[in-house]
Design brief:
alpha+beta; Rossmann fold; Dna Ligase, domain 1; five-stranded antiparallel beta sheet; 14 helices; 13 strands; ligase; magnesium; ligase activity, forming carbon-nitrogen bonds; nucleotide-binding
């Protein structure tokens, strides 16, 4: 009810798009300006000098010493006074925490909040994909079950940081011990051989459709650096691959495979309605491997904008098919907000 009252007040004036200075913030700010929205950037003092280079995209800075200050009552009340709609991204979720966003952050957020809780816990994440009827890798409940190459992944929006590959139960145990993991917020998955493909999707309440907005391949350290070395050197140095995302590479999928991607996206949105209790609105990503027979195996999802969308500031080939104009995901979010505001439909797209 409180959110409903806030949104009713928003409809009396202009709205602002607000986000945190990291991840995909420049794309979001650029897209908002293209759609004529006011912009607010929440930034730490040590990043301010860099972001001032983009003053033409930023109407107002909110400067904080620590990210947790975003949760302060004064900061939240100020954002609400500016009719701000906050766009969550991976860094925002990592800095603030999914539970804090859901329970302690009272400012309107674009998209779904509850999906961030499911995203932050690896077991719940895979459970939701499975409930959606999406093909996922085999899971192992404990290191003792491992009988093939696996990848061990941590919970939260960590950009692949801390993930590692193992080929035996002993290697899994050593890797977990090295990371000092005391809780169970990790998952052990079969390492599926194929081409990584990260599918960017947008569920539009305004247009009443699901859009494929692009896709990318992640460039990861040090696994992508190691592959340049000949096998004999790899054996000598004994370095284990790691999967921290450094950057992103554009990708266009074989068109016949798009049908399966769309089917997965539709199933996933329907699953969020049924099992999360809140429809996933706006951008999300199905993080996948495409095998040599064309089968698509989804090993993770992100329930908000992903940094791989940054490579398409002027739009991907797919967004052009929908809009016939430059349309980044940042601009697509801003357009959804603008039209919803004009039609009195903000409650359909924010939580």
């Amino acid at each position: 009810m409180q959110l409903k009252r806030i949104v009713e007040e928003y409809h009396k004036g202009d709205v602002s798009l607000a986000t945190v200075a990291s991840h995909s913030s420049l794309q979001l700010l650029h897209g908002a300006k293209k759609e004529g929205l006011r912009t607010i950037l929440i930034v730490k003092e040590d990043r301010l000098k860099f972001y001032r280079n983009f003053n033409h995209l930023i109407d107002e800075f909110i400067i904080v010493n620590e990210w947790k200050e975003i949760l302060n009552r004064e900061t939240q009340e100020y954002l609400i006074s500016k009719n701000a709609i906050v766009i969550p991204h991976g860094s925002f979720v990592e800095y603030i925490g999914a539970h804090s966003i859901v329970n302690d952050f009272k400012v309107p957020v674009f998209g779904s909040r509850k999906i961030l809780l499911w995203e932050s816990e690896q077991d719940k994440k895979m459970e939701l994909l499975e409930k959606a009827g999406i093909k996922i890798p085999k899971r192992f409940n404990s290191p003792d079950e491992v009988d093939r190459p696996v990848i061990v992944k941590l919970g939260g929006a960590k950009g692949g940081r801390g993930y590692f590959i193992a080929t035996s139960s002993d290697e899994v145990k050593r890797g977990l011990e090295k990371l000092g993991l005391k809780d169970r917020n990790y998952i052990i998955q079969e390492y599926v051989i194929g081409v990584p493909a990260y599918f960017h999707i947008f569920n539009s309440k305004i247009m009443n459709r699901i859009e494929i907005t692009g896709m990318d391949i992640r460039y990861e350290s040090n696994v992508d650096g190691l592959r340049r070395l000949p096998p004999r050197i790899l054996d000598e140095i004994g370095v284990m691959p790691s999967f921290t995302v450094i950057g992103n590479i554009p990708m266009v999928l074989r068109e016949s495979l798009l049908i399966k991607v769309y089917e997965y996206a539709e199933n996933f949105v329907n699953a969020t309605k049924k099992f999360v209790g809140e429809e996933l609105v706006g951008p999300f990503c199905l993080e996948s491997i495409v095998k040599d027979d064309g089968e698509i195996v989804v090993f993770e999802f992100s329930g908000r904008i992903v940094a791989g969308t940054n490579i398409y500031v002027n739009g991907s080939p797919y967004s052009y098919y929908y809009w016939d104009e430059p349309m980044s995901v940042g601009r697509r979010i801003a357009r959804e907000i603008k039209i919803a505001h004009q039609r009195g439909m903000l409650t359909d797209i924010i939580n």
